[in-house]
Amino acid sequence: MNEDYLWDKSGAPDPEIQQLEEILGTLRYQPKPLRLAPRRNYVALLAIAATVAVALLTGGLWLLLPKQEASIPSVAYVTPAVRIPIENLPLFPSPPASPKRHPRVLAKHNDQEAVAAKQQLMFALRLASEKLNDAYRRTQTPTQIKNQHRAG
């Protein structure tokens, strides 16, 4: 075997080495020209730009749309039509009419009970509203502590 042939292909070739060169010839190094500027993949850049554009458009629309706030009124103002003294209201309604009464008397009696119940309910609502208004006013005004002195 000639070792010069292995290094610089000078001298007589060995038939076994020539056979190996033919078999492994497909795997031989094939030089390619040097590319200094690689091709860019613009698909990723376009996807990022589209995502940013959609996010900005969505944010702009969200800011422009009117917002409906569900708020619960903190104060209920009720102006009573007629003030009814507490003494005139019955504390307990009269017992229900027996079904043996005549239907006209029964209907008249039920109407009176309904009016009395309505008056009691309206009075209770007015009283609760006044108490809530008073509590609201007390929480909204700054409290002043009177007669406060330095100790010591």
Task: List descriptors.
rod-shaped, 0% strand, 152 residues, mainly alpha
Please state the structural category. Answer: mainly alpha
Give the N-terminus to C-terminus distance in angstroms.
Answer: 115 Å
Beta content: under 5%
Helix content: 40-55%
Indicate the mean pLDDT: 77
How many beta-strand runs? 0
Tally the helices: 4
* Poorly predicted ranges: none
User: What Rg, in angstroms, do the CA atoms define?
Assistant: 50 Å
Q: What string, H for helix and E for strand, traces the elements in order?
A: HHHH
Question: How would you describe the overall organization of this protein?
Answer:
This protein is mainly α. It has four helices and no strands. It starts with a helix and ends in a 12-residue tail after the last helix. The longest helix is centred in the last third of the chain and has 38 residues.
Fold blueprint:
Layout: H1 3-8, H2 15-24, H3 42-64, H4 103-140
Explain briefly what this protein structure is.
With 152 residues, the protein is mainly α. Helix content is 51%, strand content 0%.
